[in-house]
Design brief:
Layout lengths: L2 H15 L2 H7 L3 E9 L11 E4 L1 H8 L6 H5 L7 E3 L2 E5 L5 E6 L5 E7 L14 E3 L4 H8 L8 E6 L5 E6 L3 E4 L2 E6 L5 H5 L5 E8 L4 E11 L3 H10 L2 H4 L8 E15 L2 E6 L1
Parallel strand pairs: 1-6, 7-15
Antiparallel strand pairs: 1-2, 3-4, 4-5, 5-6, 8-9, 8-12, 10-11, 11-14, 12-13, 13-14, 14-15
Helix pairs in contact: 1-2
């Protein structure tokens, strides 16, 4: 991944989770004189805009538990898209974040619009068939462990017997893929997908009325970028179980998804 996109990845991970490790990875990719123009935190509604200046102040504002963090943790954040001035991240909510860079490809300026206390409403999302994992579903999947609704993953052994387990490291890897960091490379899931690569995943949050059912084909990725990304996108608490990265990333190409997310939002994906 290029330096600019990597910096954006770490910034969004820190902002949306409050994780210390994401902020630590962001630090060398943030300009010393970086500026963060935000209206989201801290404070009581209505919140005025605040411009934080300098790497240290920006980092202190990005990570940690702020009033907006719980909402951000359930929000889907897009991959960065190029704009005339740099890169932009959009969300399943009302938030957009624009990034500009210096000549060393360090993040120079961040502008967040539509955040906590702004009064800006999210654009209604159309339900129905989709070619990619919806951002709203991405937010729930990536925030499943923090929401205490870890995802059930099922594989089938060579004798045809299904095996289900709760997995805390599940995350959306790409618009059509889901990743799981498996810290025991010789465990059942990574060894058995060599015989049968079909797996299923289930997310269920009865309080929110949200259910996501996924079918897909799994593989073990061996390239360093896939290993890095799957590990670092997983929740920080999962990373601490395997700090030396002895595990393996299982990448699941989604073939079918049914996502009923409550409030009349329903999505179907078939590939």
């Amino acid at each position: 991944m290029d330096k600019r996109s990597l910096g954006v990845e770490y910034f969004i991970k820190a902002l949306s989770t409050g994780e210390r490790t994401a902020a630590q990875r962001l630090e060398p990719l943030l300009a010393e004189d970086a500026e963060y123009d935000t209206n989201t935190q801290p404070g009581i509604v209505p919140i005025g805009r605040q411009v934080l200046k300098g790497r240290s102040d920006v980092l202190n504002q990005v990570f940690g538990l702020w009033p907006a963090t719980p909402g951000y943790s359930r929000m889907g954040w897009s991959d960065p898209e190029p704009t005339e001035g740099g890169l932009r991240v959009t969300t399943s909510g009302a938030v957009t974040v624009d990034f500009s860079f210096n000549d060393r490809d360090e993040i120079q300026r961040i502008v967040l619009e539509g955040g906590y206390g702004s009064g800006v409403s999210a654009t209604p999302q159309k339900s129905g068939p989709t070619d990619t994992i919806p951002l709203a579903a991405k937010g729930l999947i990536n925030g499943a462990l923090a929401n205490q609704t870890p995802i059930v993953v099922t594989y089938v052994d060579p004798q045809g017997a299904p095996h289900s387990s709760l997995r805390g490291s599940v995350c959306v890897f790409s618009p059509t893929e889901i990743a799981i960091w498996i810290r025991h490379a010789d465990g059942g899931l990574p060894t058995q997908i060599a015989h049968n690569d079909q797996v299923s995943l289930l997310y269920n949050d009865r309080k929110a009325g949200a259910t996501i059912i996924v079918q897909g084909r799994a593989r073990i990725a061996t390239d360093e970028e896939s290993r890095r990304k799957a590990f670092e996108l997983s929740p920080e608490v999962e990373q601490t179980h395997d700090p030396d990265m002895h595990g393996v990333p299982v990448i699941i190409g989604v073939t079918k998804m049914q996502a009923n997310l409550g409030a009349g939002r329903s999505y179907s994906l078939s590939r």
